[in-house]
Amino acid sequence: MAKPAIAVFYVAAMITVIVIVDVLIFRNHFWERLMVNAGIVLVFAALYLRFLGHP
Fold first, then answer.
1. What is the pLDDT of residues 7-19, one digit of tens each?
2. pTM for the whole thing?
3. What are the DSSP E strand ranges found in 1-55?
C-alpha cells in the first residue's frame, strides 16, 4: 500500500516542479518551455526507475 502512495506523491512533486518552472521562467517561450518540461519528465522518470523501480 505504501508504493502507490509514494508514486502519487512523486507525480504531484513532478507536476509542482513543472508548473513552477513554467510560471516563473518560461511564461512566453513555447518551444523552450516544451523542451524543459520534457526534460523534467525524463529526469523524474529516470530517478523513479533508479530509486523506486523494481529491485
1. 899 999 999 999 9
2. 0.85
3. none
Q: Could you give the CA distance from residue 26 to residue 49 in angstroms, rounded to a whole number?
A: 28
Please provide residue 37's backbone torsions phi and psi, each rounded to the nearest 5 degrees.
-65, -40
**One-letter amino acid of 16:** T
Task: Identify the helix (H) or strand (E) that includes residue 31.
Answer: helix 30-47
Retrieve residue 44's grid coordinates: 523524474
Question: What's the maximum distance between 2 C-alpha atoms anywhere in the chain?
Answer: 42
Contacts of 40 (CB under 8 A, 6+ apart): 14, 17, 18, 21
